[in-house]
Amino acid sequence: MSDIDALQDALAGEHAVIWGYGVVGAEVTEEQQPDVRAAELAHRCRRDATAELLRSLAAVPTEAEAYYELPFPVTDPASGLRLAVHLEAGAAAAWRFVLGQTDDAELRRTALEALTASAVQATRWRLAAGTEPATVAFPGQ
Amino acid sequence: MGTPLSRRRVLVAFAAGAGALGGAGLLSACTGSPAPVTPISTVPTAPDPLLAVLDERVGLLADYDAAGLQHPELLARLLPLRKQTEEQVAALRLALALPRPSPTATGSGTSTAAPTTTAVPVDPVDPAVTLAAVRTAVRASGSTAAALCETTTAQRAPLVGSLAAAAACHELMLR
User: Buried b vs exposed e over B101-125: b needs ≥16 C-beta within 10 Å?
Assistant: First the structure.
């Protein structure tokens, strides 16, 4: 595994998260919609930046899949929030993995920013869902 | 999940074996001119930078304890964070191959710092002041981990990065 492979995995994860937020948005309450949109936008920015980074490394960025399998049925606001937590935890894991695949300080910084953003967003979703504790000891692990 | 511990034991055993080889002069024997063997322990080295991350997390445990003593109404908020910080301290000790602390010790780490060095003010009037002090200490621990994450080994970077991210989350919970 190289840093490019790890970045491709992280990019594939970002594609999946963006798709998943479409499902989340369809189920959560009206007052949660702005938060969903903001979280989704953050991942769109991350996706674009990651694709750009891969191109700069002479790699062809991984494309999004047409459809993704949900980890559990998402049928109401509660399961929508659980999916949101799941998405952010998955993104955090992918970016945590990138950290161990490179010695490049700049790429480490990029990956850590993404890991931290997803960990914090997962915490926000757990708070919204009333999940306790809202934090984990080792985000992305 | 017993692998981290057993791997550590293997590494410790390996290090002991390497030391024995050097001590017996086997490595210098084939050169014909016996060179002085310098024991590894006497070579001056900079402290492992991961120790600074460990020390700060151990300091946070004391901060949480002091804050909880001063404001028992904060305990429900602080205890889950303290518990996770304890798990982080344990993971850091494993990464540093440090021995397990005695179960009777009040602290979990190597630090022998007195409570006077904690971030929590001695006599705060307002729980918000106490929370802000803990939050500042958590943020500092996150900054230390984030900085180290850029320069540490690839093996340690995921753990150190995860600890930086965890600090950002804990900070959010202390707002």
Answer: beeeeebbbbbeeeeeebbbeeebe
